[in-house]
Amino acid sequence: MVRIEVERRIDAPRERVWARYTDHVSWSEWAKMGKVRLEREGAPTRDGSGCVRVISNGGVSVVEEVLDFEAPARMTYRVVRGGIPIKDHLGEVMMEERGDGTQVVWCCRFRSRIPGLGWFWKLLVSRLFAGALAGLDKDLSTQRAA
Questions:
Q1: Is 68 exposed, middle or buried (0-12, 13-18, 19+ CB in 10 A)?
Q2: Which of 10, 32, 40, 80 is the most buried (most CB within 10 A)?
Q3: Nearest in space to 4 (alpha carbons), one of 139, 122, 134, 142
Q4: Which of 45, 11, 5 is nearest to 25 (CA)?
Q5: Which is higher by pLDDT, 83 or 19?
Q6: What's the whole-number average pLDDT of the chain?
Q7: Using CA atoms, how far apart are residues 42 and 55, in angstroms rounded to an integer?
């Protein structure tokens, strides 16, 4: 089992960070993961529990379902299907107030479908998470400046 944890402090209130992070379609603008669309809306908001988001990049799509949606503190999701060779992917994003900012912790666990390549997928997914959180931070700081 591969485990990943990426953290980033963002200088914005937790409610604002949560609102932008959980606006899944907006990921197309700031997450640097490709185009994101909703396949199914969730509850209590369209991006909440039961929501299914599709992330597409370079002809590869990953479909994820939001499981738990505890605004503005915690969200879990799982990969339902996709073009990457991992299985049993379960992710969790937690947000905690830290002074006038927010500490974001994004973690997941999964198995590689290709024996011996767990280290490679760990490196790739860690970079994707770190890049997405950097993009979120930049997006929110740009909004503050405007």
A1: exposed
A2: 10
A3: 122
A4: 45
A5: 19
A6: 95
A7: 16
In single-letter form, the type of residue at position 25 comes to V
The Cβ of residue 44 has, within 10 Å, a number of other Cβ atoms equal to 9
Q: What is the CATH number of the domain that holds 138?
A: 3.30.530.20
Residues 42-88: pLDDT tens digits? 999 999 999 999 999 988 999 999 999 999 999 999 999 987 899 99
Long-range pairs, 41-44, Cβ under 8 A, ≥24: 42/66, 42/69, 44/69
Phi, psi (degrees; rounded to nearest 5) at 45: -120, 170
Strand ranges (E), the chain = 2-10, 35-40, 52-57, 60-70, 74-82, 86-98, 101-112
Which pairs with CB-CB distance under 8 Å and at least 24 residues apart come from 90-94? 91/64, 93/21
Instruction: Count how many domains the chain has.
Output: 1
Under the banding of pLDDT at 50, 70 and 90, the label for residue 120 is very high
